[in-house]
Design a protein that fits this description.
With 387 residues, the protein is an alpha+beta fold. The protein is built from four helices and 15 strands. 12% of the residues lie in helices and 19% in strands.
Length: 387
């Protein structure tokens, strides 16, 4: 910017017009003065334009407040770091040089000087005075003259007992137990030396299982599941799982691959082609068809797998009841003469020995074949457990 130019070369440094009374001529403007004035004006314009440019404003003939707006934009923003000594709003008063002095100036350095917070104006709010204070250990509240007790905050969190809640680390539930539509377990690590039942989630490598753990139960440990009557009395029937993983139904063990309910030697009759070797893994069953037992009836006895009897019978004379066959013959009683010429004689007749000869005989019948005594039947497939 150019230095301040000299005033016009007159006695009083002012411009004068022609004085017609005295004949004094008007002030003569010299080229030196005009050049100085032009240079100073342009220098001032350059300064102003620099300010406008810094504020992002282009000179406009019809506008008379551009310089003012530029100055406001550049220097009057309350959080402008270029304003020396100004507080920056993004620092939240952390840029105070002496924060203690600031608290003192605002009467915040003495708790006793705090005034009550006048409640009111909000929906449902009364006009009581609310006080907050420090008792040496905790923040406490008071409404009018009624103490409200300690406040809960980060350094004074409430306990489960304060909220009548169940402790996060666990504890004893009341006699009514826990009632919830959804119980979520997401942890594991039941204490092995503490008696009780735990429901937990056991996860490894992104896969897991729901575990129902019973520690130090009666006997070998395990679980009992009972049906409960409407009056909350227990039924005698139950399903139980032992500590060894054995399942019992009302005291009787339920089948498992290592505990088939059918012992070795058990014979199973099937009305279809189902193979019990597949029904009961870990056991071995022999198919009885084609093993010499085909077509045999089942007879109770004391010698297992002994065979006997027959499906056919041959009758002998001894099998017949005592009986006789009556017989007879019919003829002409020698009243008819023999064919041919008859002969006759007189005198005494006698007999002679001619040997055996056949009289009347019946023809032979029957071959002695055996006949079936098998009843009507239905076929079943037989299997016997061998291992």
């Amino acid at each position: 910017m150019k230095p301040l130019i000299d005033p016009i070369n007159t006695d009083d440094g002012q411009f004068h017009g022609r004085d017609n009374q005295t004949g004094q001529l008007a002030t003569i403007v010299t080229p030196v003065y005009m050049n100085d004035t032009q240079g100073a004006t342009r220098s001032l314009q350059r300064e102003v334009i620099s300010i406008l440019t810094a504020a992002g404003i282009k000179p406009a003939d019809a506008t008379n407040d551009q310089l003012l707006n530029a100055l406001k934009s550049l220097f009057l923003a309350e959080d402008d770091s270029r304003v020396s000594g100004a507080l920056q709003k993004d620092k939240n008063l952390s840029d105070l040089i002496d924060s203690a002095k600031a608290r003192e100036a605002l009467s915040l350095d003495k708790v006793g000087n705090w005034v009550a917070v006048q409640q009111g104006g909000g929906t449902g709010m009364l006009t009581n005075k609310v006080y907050a204070g420090w008792n040496g250990k905790k923040l406490i509240a008071q409404v009018d003259s009624s103490p409200m007790g300690a406040l809960f905050y980060e350094k004074n969190p409430p306990t489960a007992a304060d909220c009548n809640a169940f402790p996060a680390e666990g504890g004893t539930v009341g006699s009514k137990g826990v009632t919830t539509p959804f119980l979520f377990a997401n942890g594991h690590g039941a204490p092995l030396n503490q008696q009780g039942t735990w429901i937990e989630w056991n996860e490894t490598n992104g896969q897991g299982e729901s575990a129902f753990i019973n520690n130090k139960g009666s006997g070998s440990g395990g679980f009992n599941f009972r049906i409960v009557n409407s009056d909350n009395t227990k039924q005698s029937g139950e399903v139980s799982i032992s500590g060894n993983g054995e399942i019992y139904e009302n005291g009787r063990r339920v089948y498992s691959p290592a505990n088939c309910p059918f012992p070795v030697g058990y014979v199973m009759l099937m009305g279809n082609g189902t193979d019990p070797n597949g029904l009961f893994p870990g056991t071995t069953w022999q198919y009885l068809n084609g093993t010499g037992y085909d077509g045999r009836a089942i007879v109770l006895g004391t010698d297992p797998l002994a065979v006997g009897g027959s499906n056919t019978v041959t009758l002998a004379e001894a099998h017949l009841p005592p009986h006789r066959h009556a017989g007879g013959a019919t003829g002409d009683a020698s009243t008819k003469p023999d064919e041919g010429a008859g002969q006759w004689g007189t005198g005494r007749f006698g007999t002679d020995a001619k040997g055996g000869y056949a009289l009347m005989q019946t023809s032979a019948a029957g071959s002695g074949q055996a006949f079936s005594v098998q009843n009507e039947y239905v076929h079943l497939l037989g299997w016997m457990r061998t291992a």
